[in-house]
Amino acid sequence: MEERPPIIRIGNLTKRFGGGVTAVDDVSLDIGEGEFFALLGPSGCGKTTLLRMIAGFEVPSEGRIRVDDQDMVGVPPNKRPINMVFQSYAVFPHMSVSDNVAYGLKVTGVARDEAGRRVEEALDLVKLGGYGARMPDQLSGGQRQRVALARALVKRPKVLLLDEPLSALDAKLREAMQLELVRLQHAVGITFVIVTHDQQEALSMANRIAVMEAGQVRQVAPPAELYEFPKNRFVADFIGKMNLFEGTVAGVQATRLLVDVKGLGRLTLDAEGPASGAVGIAVRPEKVRLCREQPGDGMVALRGKVNEVAYYGDTSFVYVTDESGRTISVNLQNEARRAEPAVSVGDSLWCAWNPNDSLILNA
Questions:
Q1: DSSP code for 300
Q2: Domain residue spans in the chain?
Q3: Is 19 left (phi over 0), alpha (psi -120 to 50) or beta?
Q4: Per-residue three-class SS string for 151-206
Q5: Considering the entire predicted model, what is its pTM?
Q6: How many helices (H) and strands (E) does the chain have?
Q7: Does domain 6-237 have CATH number 3.20.20.70?
Q8: C-beta of residue 316 within 8 angstroms of C-beta of residue 341
Q9: Is 2 exposed, middle or buried (0-12, 13-18, 19+ CB in 10 A)?
Q10: Which residues contact 297 (CB under 8 A, 6 or more apart)?
Q11: Quick one: 211 exposed, middle or buried, by C-beta within 10 A (0-12, 13-18, 19+)?
């Protein structure tokens, strides 16, 4: 991936609230110019607090934030080269679409002719050309979101911050708006930083993702690297589904790791890991295959019975339980057109996967 010069530099940033609560704990990261960057994590992990400190709505307890090579300490929100789109949109209900978009320009004293031209450009950019005279209550939720985006972009910030901007939309509109945001970011070329708890949203939109837990950044990586090569159990489990087995390192053989896993035997894995001790062995559900016959040599295999099938149209999640009571989830693509599922509850099947699709995870 091409290295981008940083436009945001965050160094040892900490935010403490009353009662001994540390919302952001010694976070350091760079966000590149023109990058679509996501802050991802569960509720309460500190991602929105971090975003609000970048915007200037929260004051750090410790650490530094630099934007476009300027120290942001003491710089109020309206003086930063940043704009923010809130979860609630915050569209003024008593103003027309054009007046909503022009509001920030009017406050800063931009001439009326210049403001009018920039408002039209911004509305065209978010595909709302011709909607300027309408009132917010005449718009759909997706259109109101576009108005909020146009109002943020019309001031031509260097960075656009988005706090859970799609959470109020229904599933289909949300998916469409994800594509629109990516298109918009490419069109304007500025840095977008989005906060979300939705893994699929972050994976489908961002160039890089920072996964947060308990105020700390656990891993920063592009989407594919984050999904296929998580650095710890939290990231592996939070990003998508994961089957996890407990193992013990039995030794190292050249570049291979020998791991004993209960129910699976000794696995020989082409992977880096500790020379001894306990480790987690994990495999994604889509890497696992269901077989009626015992798989051939070289595959990791586990036999069990199907105890649940969850049908989702294009895919089914199949849950197989072995003799020890351990359950394996398998993502089964529904490739053939049929009225009945390919597998049923009670079927006795083998779960098999390539050893190289196994991940070795520490705490």
A1: E
A2: 6-237, 243-361
A3: left
A4: HHHCCCCCEEEEECCCCCCCHHHHHHHHHHHHHHHHHHCCEEEEEECCHHHHHHHC
A5: 0.86
A6: 8, 20
A7: no
A8: yes
A9: exposed
A10: none
A11: buried
* β strands within 43-183, DSSP E: 62-67, 70-71, 82-85, 159-163
119 neighbors 132 (Cβ within 8 angstroms)? yes
CATH of domain 243-361: 2.40.50.140
CB 208 within 8 A of CB 222: yes
Q: What is the pLDDT of residues 233-250, one digit of tens each?
A: 899 989 988 898 888 888
- Distance CA(304)–CA(350), nearest Å, equals 6
Q: Which of 70, 9, 6, 72 is nearest to 34 (CA)?
A: 6
Maximum pairwise Cα distance, the chain: 76
From residue 322, give the alpha-carbon distance in Å to each of 215, 286, 290, 306, 348. Answer: 38, 18, 13, 9, 10
Summarised one tens digit per residue, pLDDT across range 140-188 is 878 888 888 888 888 888 999 998 887 777 777 788 888 888 988 888 8
* Amino acid at site 180: E
Ramachandran assignment for 146, one of left (phi > 0), alpha (psi -120 to 50 degrees), beta (any other) = alpha
Neighbours of 351 (CB within 10 A): 24
CA 237/CA 47 separation, integer angstroms: 18
Other residues' Cβ atoms within 10 Å of the Cβ of residue 265: 10
Contact 312, 278 (CB under 8 A): no
Residue 353 Cα distances to 144, 192, 240, 307, 312, angstroms = 47, 38, 18, 20, 23
Q: Phi and psi for 323 in degrees, rounded to 5?
A: -65, -25
